[in-house]
Amino acid sequence: RRSSDDEAIARRERLTMKIRTSNARNERSPLIAHGGVDGGGDRPTTSIGRRTKLVLGATAVVLCGGAALASSADARARIGDWIPKNGVLLAPAPTNMAPTVTFDLHTQCLPGDLKESLADFMLSGAPIGHVVRHNYGSDSFFEESDAIQMERVVLPSEERIWRVTTNGDVNFEYGFALKNAETGEWRYEIGKDASIPLAKAKANCAQKYGEYFNRVLTREDNPNTVSYVYGTCDTECPSDMVESTWDDKMLLEDIPELPNMAVLGEGNDARLVNIRSGITIKYGDVKGPSGRGMAARDKQFAETRVKARHIVAVVDPYLANEVKMVHLEVILEGTTLKAYKIGQKLLPFGHACFGTECAIASHDISADWHNSRATTNVGYKMSAHALQYTIGMRGDTKPKQMSHTFPNSAFLTTWKMYDAGTWGMDLDVRRVIFQSGGMCGKDWFKGQCIRMLAPERYTSFTATAQEAQWIFVIAGNGNSDMIRVRVYQQNGAVMVQAAQAKRTGQCPDPPMSTLLTQFHREFDVIQCSIPIKDRWAAGSAQAIAATSTSSGFGVGSVQWMLAAEMSASLARAWKP
Predict the structure, then answer these.
(1) CA–CA dist 34, 43 (Å, integer)
(2) Helix, strand or coil for residue 446?
(3) pTM for the whole thing?
(4) Which of 138, 168, 256, 365 is a good FRET partner for 442, with 20 to 30 A between their CA atoms?
């Protein structure tokens, strides 16, 4: 039967997933209040527990590994290169066994090296904050099953933090842990492994027990209100923090073929370039493709930190019986992200498309690209131009990309996008980022949902967590046709509504590169020189088509990204 010290050590080592057994007692054994958990006979206190009896008053002598260490107001105590911030090597026992404590955990301003160390953990899903604990006298050491989940709170700065108030649930040792909402994996800031943030930093705001580091309430300046940036001794994010994950970028040039490459910007992970749309262009002919094309990841390509692939695609009138696609590769060279074209294909429908079949937002573009019927025998050269994209940094979470196609008998009117409790930790509809819509209805190319509704944020409406509005806009037949789309919360669910339709004149001359012909330029509704809010205000009311045979025009399909968490840059994207 193992000694109580060995059991305590084993429990702590579970944090780093390294289970070891020690048969030796020493002065570096972790602190427990009433001995082991073997259940038999008297439970002796550990040797480090006996040391607490020596920590008396402002001056104390603590035995550690056979050496006497003095701590006082005049001599700084240390163990190796760890120096406790208050000069006392061992945290005192609690005097209040059931305190009320508010814990704040900041995760949106992690130092670069710490954020980098969590990058692979964070990539697939945003983390949920927890408090893990070892209460005085308890045999439970920071177990996941005993963790206390925190709640999301929005600060006035738009920073999102984790917060929980406990009433007697935590009275002594504690730490913060993150759980990946998608994979169920955990990461602890406390423990002994070299990768554990507080151990790696030899943090003086933590308690050192042998090789282990964890936080202790009785060391806190205010044990009733605790605030930390995960894995550090910082108590809050800096006021001048700038986060740019969702800052929109536009590259006003063609994406070339090798050996040339286009520079997207600075970054450190190719997987975190999120392309929303681009213009598909055709060289040597003013006709087609025309208008914005939808962008999607190549799901059959194994992305890495240094390489990812995307496809920009469109169905347009020239000809309307095929999907036109341009294949792009994004690479990381040093700290610079670059892109180049690696191929082009056509996927013929084999018949004249009708209704939402023609809408590019209704297609799985990755599957279309890899379809055996897709051909490289295009007959002309295509490229992608004016990419609309954002760049995340390692430690950010890659957003999910989704689509929905409505039946031709029932286009978008009011639709539930997400049920309550299924769309993440930040209940904020501004996280929905539309990429594409299918323009449909009897009055649009006789029922063919060709070209693409390009979504723009409608900043004349004050977007909130509860409601945001978009203008879906398309150019054709000398007009700009627009549909105002509401995204709002209803009893925790995310609802989408086609609220109003308008028509105004086609954009005369978008301010773009002269590489494009006038034909290409006038079909880019995103880069129109007239802001979308002004085009909307000047538009005349139109009917919203509810079916493929209805008058007016409507939304037959949508594609969007869902940001894993709300952030300051995403809130900033909605500012006028």
Answers:
(1) 6
(2) helix
(3) 0.84
(4) 365
Say which residue the tokens 């920073």 belong to: 159
For residue 123, CA distances in Å to 69, 118, 394, 510, 565 come to 45, 9, 8, 36, 12
Torsion of CA 511, 514, 515, 516, to 10 degrees: 60
Say which DSSP state 253 is in: E
Alpha-carbon distance values, 291 to 251, 256, 311, 317, 438 (Å) = 16, 19, 15, 10, 13
Tens digits of residue pLDDT in 385-416: 889 999 999 999 999 999 999 999 999 999 99
How many Å apart are CA 401 and CA 122, to the nearest integer?
17
Please give the structure tokens belonging to residue 541: 């009311």
Instruction: Give the Cα separation of 45 and 52 in Å (integer).
Output: 11
Q: What is the pLDDT of residues 86-104, one digit of tens each?
A: 778 889 999 999 999 999 9
| CA 468 – CA 461 distance, rounded (Å) | 7
Backbone angles phi, psi at 341, to 5 degrees: -80, 135
Over residues 252-308, the pLDDT tens digits come to: 888 999 999 999 999 999 999 999 999 888 776 656 667 789 999 999 999 999 999
Cα distance between residue 548 and residue 356, in whole Å? 9
CA distance 342 to 387: 16
With contact defined as beta carbons under 8 Å apart, do 127 and 401 qualify? no
At 50 the three-state DSSP class reads: helix
Classify 113 as helix, strand or coil.
Answer: helix
Q: Environment class of residue 205 by beta-carbon count within 10 Å: exposed (0-12), middle (13-18) or buried (19+)?
A: buried
The continuous run of DSSP H or E covering 336 comes out as: strand 336-348
Type and span of the H or E element at 263: strand 262-266
Q: Do residues 308 and 297 make contact, with C-beta atoms less than 8 angstroms apart?
A: yes
The alpha carbons of the chain give a radius of gyration, in whole angstroms, of 29
Take residue 133 and report the two structure tokens written for it.
């604990």
Q: Dihedral (C-alpha) 253, 257, 258, 262: value to the nearest 10 degrees?
A: 20
